[in-house]
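User: Hi! I have a protein structure encoded as tokens and I'd like to know what sequence might fold into it. I'm fairly new to this, so please keep things simple.
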């Protein structure tokens, strides 16, 4: 049976690149770069929808819920990438932001045949996570028609979860299942159908906004400093010191002393130095203010 996808914007031929194989390397790359420049403008048109989803995610986090991404292929890998970077950057538990990909762990590195065509597989994956009405589920697919993702979105809605989608084709089946649809229409790809390119870039930009925005709304950022960063390597240990210095104007030595006193928790060290508190007092006040440093400083 023929699968009719030629009408999809992401499957159409791009007039700007029809002779790309006949160009010099420099000219070829200029064509790609010029097309990439249009992606941020496509995402800009979806800011209102992204804003709604960010607030839903922050609300879910506040009540102990999770953000769950679902995708196949490139889209699934992008969701996993975004989820995996939240714990080291924002000190979140690994189960708070989860990335699911059709075909499971193997599919992260190698395509798993027919996995994306199974809505039942998505339901199984969400059942294993015990998805509830506290969670936000975001389906990701450039085409907007991936059966695995649609199956997951339908099941998540049945459980009462807030459901959003990120797609690059307007009026796609996934938008019919979503409470909010984020649709950056980036147009045909440089290499026809290669949606890992402009569509993938658009998805990555949106994912950056979703988690960064939700973490800011959750008190994980002070000014523009990642004050819940975890010290998991030498670079991040130094970054913690730099953050405390930037936030308080103290010396490196004072920053290190404060960090050592509070088990290297940036937010606590900053509060200690700015409010003249010891580690126990600062920890207690932060807990009282649900981890919001600005609120603690306004005590």
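Assistant: Happy to help. Inverse folding works backwards from shape to sequence: for each of the 299 positions I chose a residue that suits the local structure. Here it is:
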């Amino acid at each position: 049976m023929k699968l009719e996808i030629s009408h999809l914007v992401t499957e159409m031929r791009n007039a700007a690149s029809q002779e790309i194989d006949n160009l010099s390397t420099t000219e070829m790359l200029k064509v790609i770069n010029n097309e990439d420049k249009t992606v941020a403008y496509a995402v800009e048109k979806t800011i209102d929808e992204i804003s709604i989803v960010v607030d839903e995610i922050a609300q879910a986090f506040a009540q102990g819920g999770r953000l769950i991404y679902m995708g196949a292929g490139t889209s699934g890998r992008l969701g996993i990438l975004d989820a995996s970077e939240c714990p080291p950057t924002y000190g979140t538990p690994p189960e708070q932001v989860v990335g699911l990909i059709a075909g499971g762990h193997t599919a992260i590195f190698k395509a798993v045949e027919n996995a994306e065509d199974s809505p039942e597989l998505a339901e199984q994956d969400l059942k294993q996570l015990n998805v509830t009405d506290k969670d936000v589920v975001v389906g990701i697919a450039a085409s907007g028609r991936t059966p695995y993702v649609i199956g997951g979105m339908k099941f998540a809605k049945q459980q009462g979860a807030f459901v959003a989608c990120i797609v690059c084709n307007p009026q796609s089946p996934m938008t019919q299942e979503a409470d909010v649809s984020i649709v950056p229409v980036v147009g045909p790809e440089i290499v026809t159908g290669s949606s890992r390119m402009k569509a993938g870039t658009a998805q990555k930009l949106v994912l950056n906004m979703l988690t960064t925005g939700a973490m800011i709304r959750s008190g994980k950022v002070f000014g523009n400093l990642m004050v819940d960063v975890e010290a998991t390597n030498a670079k991040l240990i130094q970054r913690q010191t730099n953050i405390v210095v930037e936030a308080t104007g103290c010396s490196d030595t004072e920053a290190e002393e404060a960090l050592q006193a509070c088990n290297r928790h940036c937010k606590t060290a900053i509060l200690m130095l700015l409010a003249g508190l010891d580690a126990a007092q600062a920890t207690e006040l932060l807990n009282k203010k649900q981890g919001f440093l600005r609120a603690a400083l306004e005590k």
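A useful reference point when you look it over: DSSP finds 15 helices and seven strands in the chain. Feel free to ask if any position seems puzzling.
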